[in-house]
Amino acid sequence: QLQLVESGGTLVQPGESLRLSCKTSQYTLEYYAVGWFRQAPGKEREFVAGINWDGVSTYYADSVKGRFTISRDNAKNTVYLQMNNVKYEDMAVYYCARSSFYRSQSPADYGFWGQGTQVTVSS
Prior knowledge:
Elements: E1 5-7, E2 11-12, E3 18-23, E4 33-39, E5 46-51, E6 58-60, E7 68-73, E8 78-83, E9 92-99, E10 110-111, E11 117-121
Parallel strand pairs: 2-11
Antiparallel strand pairs: 1-3, 3-8, 4-5, 4-9, 5-6, 7-8, 9-10, 9-11
């Protein structure tokens, strides 16, 4: 089954930083937009950040603008989410997925979801 693999989730304190990675060895990601989403217990899955196939166009949820940065290294077939100044409300399972749509923030436009990586924020 084709899917992406997320990694990098861990326990962090408020204000700290971490970097999530999303990659696959099953196909090339470079022709697709990739998005990061998150889901906290009891909540809907929500869009966090996205990046177009060429890495030029990036887009963010208002809640993470200025703190999170999405980037991609097509040579490594990997997309990253740099999370700075993490807050309690960032605690969730983070997922990545690919899309053929331009700048979409809707989970319905994404597929090949990974299993997720847990980000826990605690002092």
